[in-house]
Design brief:
6-stranded mixed β-sheet, 12 strands, mainly beta
Amino acid sequence: ASTSLVIDTACQRLVMGSDHAQIMKQRFEVSKIPFRTRPLSHVFQFGEGPPIVAQLQWLILAGLFQVLGALLPFEVSSPIPLLGSLSVFVSLGLILDLPQGVAYLSRLEVSLRLVICPTGHLGLRIDDFPDDMSHLYQSEPPMGLQWPQNPRDEIIFEGCPGWSPPLPADSALTTTTPVV
């Protein structure tokens, strides 16, 4: 579960729970994959529950079908996995092919298998790293682990915007209003 990014288009920002963050941290330490954290706050609202304030943001390396990049999730005290926001998937250019079980990331020009997460949501594996990552360690901090200039950025992948409006002006998506 800790190696998947849940496709949660209702999520306002990239976020994960503290328990999930600790599992990821342990896996990264065992695999010697570097990560960083910084104090940065953001308020989250999950459904009709009370607001939850995140105080920490992570910068974690991610491998999407051998393409190396980074994710910038906030950590909250909630029992949730790594949830990808609509903005993240717009930035990656996500196109779902459900009959084939494939996600095409148009901005990275890769296709990868969809996974079913323990919660039942669709997800993407984020642990398919390039075979050779030695170039990471040729600079300090390691390449790919530098905080972006824009605090709104949620991802760092070459060719992708770090942040996209959840519904760009040219989007065919529309929101619906609940019938009362």
